């Protein structure tokens, strides 16, 4: 591909010289330094891996095995013999899947602590295929979430139209239902294909006791001995992920009573919520994720001690109605392993820690934003023993998402996102749970679990000293020519790429920077270096996006990824990029350098 032609009009064509993918100057200099007469043998490669890549335990045999793997995968290159690499093979090795940016250690964190000590990969309204108002309900998005490693599945359960069975749907909307039993069977089949660690099913229950009893029968018959069912009493402490391998856990509010009333909203009526709208025009991948860095929060009128608009509260009806009757479904109550509920009395009552029992509390994204400004340390202390679930506000009809970092930095375990709401917030979720072997459970840092005095409780909004500085070098990128049509980015010329790189973490660490834009180049070589001082590297995610500059319209999307800083491999690494949905491109990748100073 030496030249490429673009048709500008009927009689005029533009021709561009195509740049070949070749090693940048810095890579050539490293090869010269760690080779002899244009050849890098096992001894040379071992020194390079130890000195530059910081793989200090590398042996000569390891280096020789890597050379053999390279030569097997790069047979088309002109390699002199199987015991050494030339410059082209060395460059292709650095840019290959043999040189990933994250450690390949599988599950390596301590998995024997209580569930409350982990961030858990959590979905919201897991059954929806699209928007929150009119999309289909299906088991397909549940299956896809489990295949990706999601460990918390949410099901909204309602009586079907004949009131004799249970459907899963987003109540009082136009979403089409799916049978509960179908969802349960799919969960059983796919629960542990991506991870053997426990799956939690959170139920948003809108059922009378006779149907709650039917749910109990469905759940017990479907999951049988893999169902974790400790009884009707609250746990004093949550068990560990290790002890719950390949187990299913049910979490919902215990049914104290059901008040049957004729004054129940009809199905199909949208829920009303007093919030400000935000349907502004945004790029396909979403607006930049918001943070609390400036101390502002979304304006809203819902108080924390008012449950009337809480989407997690089932409709129990009007207790003053003459048609109300009390019922109890004990077999349903006995299924619940993680008890949920929101006490009356405001945020202080919600965050009160009971030394005799543990529970799950749900807050909307708006409630969390408001609470962290006045009760930040109380939230952190609450999450040391109890589970906090955060869910999107009710006006996100398009299934968009919010910034998950606010919840994670305050210890919230179940930060629930819409898995079909592709964009920057969900990319952060993907990045967070690439850690710990992608098992869906990531151990919270010890300082968030420190049960000390109020002065010792972690405050993510505090000004903290810099622990380390991450130095990131963006060398070059390639692969767009193979994965995209040649007029995808620009009809009249090759693309003009730039890279955005930055940190998502505590407010003090959060920042985005960008490279220069390189015009008319399918293989851009930026060779730019950035430094990111980190006060809390344990909670930092490295954000990487590539865009194509467009003078007249919005810039085009060229790929993204998000990586947990704590698991970055130092040295020069090949970073594969993903599309908007988080699916890895076949060829698109960046060559980057990572160093902690």
From TrEMBL:
Q: Which Gene3D superfamilies match?
A: C2 domain, EF-hand, Phosphatidylinositol (PI) phosphodiesterase
Q: What is its EC number?
A: 3.1.4.11
UniProt biased composition (Basic and acidic residues): 259-281
Pfam families referenced in this protein's UniProt entry, alphabetically: C2, EF-hand_like, PI-PLC-X, PI-PLC-Y
Q: Give the subcellular location.
A: Cell membrane
InterPro entries per UniProt: C2_dom, C2_domain_sf, EF-hand-dom_pair, PI-PLC_fam, PLC-like_Pdiesterase_TIM-brl, PLC_EF-hand-like, PLipase_C_PInositol-sp_X_dom, PLipase_C_Pinositol-sp_Y
Q: Write out the entry's keywords from A to Z.
A: Cell membrane, Hydrolase, Lipid degradation, Lipid metabolism, Membrane, Transducer
Task: Name the cofactor(s) required for activity, per the record.
Answer: Ca(2+)
Membrane topology listed for this record: Peripheral membrane protein
Residue span, PI-PLC Y-box domain: 362-448
Show the ranges annotated as biased composition (Acidic residues): 304-316
Is Hydrolase tagged as a keyword?
yes
This enzyme catalyses: a 1,2-diacyl-sn-glycero-3-phospho-(1D-myo-inositol-4,5-bisphosphate) + H2O = 1D-myo-inositol 1,4,5-trisphosphate + a 1,2-diacyl-sn-glycerol + H(+)
Q: Which GO terms describe its biological process?
A: lipid catabolic process; phosphatidylinositol-mediated signaling; release of sequestered calcium ion into cytosol; response to stress
Please give the GO cellular component terms listed in this UniProt entry.
plasma membrane
Q: Which SMART domains match?
A: C2, PLCXc, PLCYc
Query: Where are the annotated segments for Disordered?
Result: 259-323
A molecular function annotated in GO for this UniProt entry is: phosphatidylinositol-4,5-bisphosphate phospholipase C activity
Domain C2 span(s) in chain numbering? 450-579
Which named protein is this?
Phosphoinositide phospholipase C
Organism name? Cucurbita maxima (Pumpkin)
């Amino acid at each position: 591909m030496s030249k490429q032609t673009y048709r500008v009009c009927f009689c005029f064509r533009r021709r561009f010289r195509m740049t070949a993918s070749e090693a940048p100057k810095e890579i050539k200099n490293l090869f010269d330094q760690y080779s002899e007469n244009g050849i890098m043998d096992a001894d040379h490669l071992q020194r390079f891996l130890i000195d530059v890549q910081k793989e200090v335990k590398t042996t000569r045999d390891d280096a020789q095995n890597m050379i053999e793997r390279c030569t097997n995968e790069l047979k088309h290159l002109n390699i002199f013999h199987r015991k050494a690499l030339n410059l082209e093979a060395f460059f292709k090795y650095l840019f290959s899947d043999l040189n990933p940016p994250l450690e390949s250690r599988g599950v390596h964190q301590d998995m024997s602590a209580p569930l409350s000590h982990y961030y858990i990969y959590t979905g919201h309204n897991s059954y929806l295929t699209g928007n929150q108002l009119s999309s289909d309900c299906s088991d397909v998005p549940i299956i896809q979430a489990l295949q990706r490693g999601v460990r918390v599945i949410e099901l909204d359960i309602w009586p079907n139209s004949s009131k004799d069975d249970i459907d899963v749907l987003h109540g009082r909307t136009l979403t089409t239902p799916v049978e509960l039993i179908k969802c349960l069977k799919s969960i059983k089949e796919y629960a542990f294909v991506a991870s053997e660690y426990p799956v939690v099913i959170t139920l948003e229950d809108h059922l009378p006791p006779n149907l709650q009893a039917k749910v109990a029968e469905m759940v017990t018959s479907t999951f049988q001995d893999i169902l974790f069912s400790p009884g009707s009493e609250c746990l004093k402490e949550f068990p560990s992920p290790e002890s719950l391998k390949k187990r299913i856990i049910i979490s919902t509010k215990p049914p104290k009573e059901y008040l049957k009333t004729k004054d129940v909203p009809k199905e199909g009526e949208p829920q009303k919520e007093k919030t400000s709208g935000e349907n502004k025009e945004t790029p396909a991948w979403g607006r930049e994720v918001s943070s609390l860095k400036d101390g502002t929060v979304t304006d809203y009128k819902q108080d924390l001690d008012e449950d009337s608009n809480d989407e997690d509260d089932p409709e129990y009806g009007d207790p003053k109605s003459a048609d109300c009757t009390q019922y109890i479904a004990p077999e349903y109550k006995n299924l619940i392993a993680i008890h949920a509920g929101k006490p009356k009395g405001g945020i202080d009552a919600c965050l009160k820690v009971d030394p005799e029992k543990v529970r799950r509390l749900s807050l909307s994204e708006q409630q969390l934003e408001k609470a962290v400004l006045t009760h930040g340390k109380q939230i952190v202390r609450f999450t040391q023993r109890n589970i906090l679930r955060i869910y999107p506000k009710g006006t996100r009809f398009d299934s968009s998402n919010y910034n998950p970092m606010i919840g994670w930095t305050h210890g919230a375990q179940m930060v629930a996102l819409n898995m079909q709401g592709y964009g920057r917030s969900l990319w952060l979720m993907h990045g967070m749970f690439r850690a710990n072997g992608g098992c869906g459970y990531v151990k919270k840092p010890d300082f968030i679990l420190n049960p000390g005095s109020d002065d010792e409780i972690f405050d993510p909004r505090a000004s903290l000293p810099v622990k380390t500085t991450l130095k990131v070098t963006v060398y070059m990128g390639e692969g767009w020519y193979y994965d995209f049509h040649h007029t995808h980015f620009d009809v009249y010329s090759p693309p003009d790429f730039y890279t955005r790189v930055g940190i998502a973490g505590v407010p003090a660490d959060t920042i985005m920077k960008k490279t220069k834009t390189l015009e008319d180049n399918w293989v851009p070589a930026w060779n730019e270096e950035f430094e990111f001082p980190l006060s809390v590297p344990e909670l930092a995610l490295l954000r990487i996006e590539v865009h194509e500059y467009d003078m007249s319209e919005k810039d085009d999307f060229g790929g993204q990824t998000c990586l947990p800083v704590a698991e970055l491999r130092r040295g020069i690494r090949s970073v594969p990029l993903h599309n908007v949905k988080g699916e890895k491109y076949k060829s698109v990748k960046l060559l980057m350098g990572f160093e902690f100073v």
